[in-house]
UniProtKB/TrEMBL annotation:
Bilayer-crossing regions: none
Gene3D superfamilies on file: 1.20.1270.360
Sections of the chain in a coiled coil: none
Family matches, as InterPro entries: Csp_YhjQ, YHJQ-like
Name of the protein in its database record: Four-helix bundle copper-binding protein
């Protein structure tokens, strides 16, 4: 349910999922940067950064009721899938949890 209007109700589950995914990716990225093998995580860290950006933008487009929200969500789903695949290559708990959030967001964005 929207915070001040009902205009975003049809998107609310996806908005929430995008915001959770962006937060998970931000937390994971910070932790990955501090891992002893951070240099080996360069591709994963870059994908986390992309995922943060697209999730935030997709959520904003949905909040605005943009006619392009669905299109952006399709791209978001693709990037979330790629990010999940990168995170799943690492054994850390934070990477596993992040991959789970990315997978949830991908499913939610695909259903738009």
């Amino acid at each position: 349910m929207g915070l001040v209007t009902n205009g975003t109700n049809k998107y609310q589950a996806c908005i929430d999922s995008c915001n959770r995914c962006a937060q998970a990716c931000m937390e994971c990225m910070q932790l990955c940067n501090n891992e002893p093998d951070a240099a080996d995580r360069e591709k994963c860290i870059a994908k986390l950064n992309e995922c943060i950006s697209i999730c935030q933008e997709a959520a904003k487009f949905m909040m605005m009721g943009s006619s392009h929200a669905v299109d952006l969500c399709k791209l978001c789903a693709l990037i979330c899938d790629e990010c999940a695949q990168e995170c799943e290559m690492f054994k850390d708990d934070h990477c596993k949890r992040c991959a789970e959030e990315c997978n949830k967001c991908e499913i939610e964005c695909q259903s738009m």
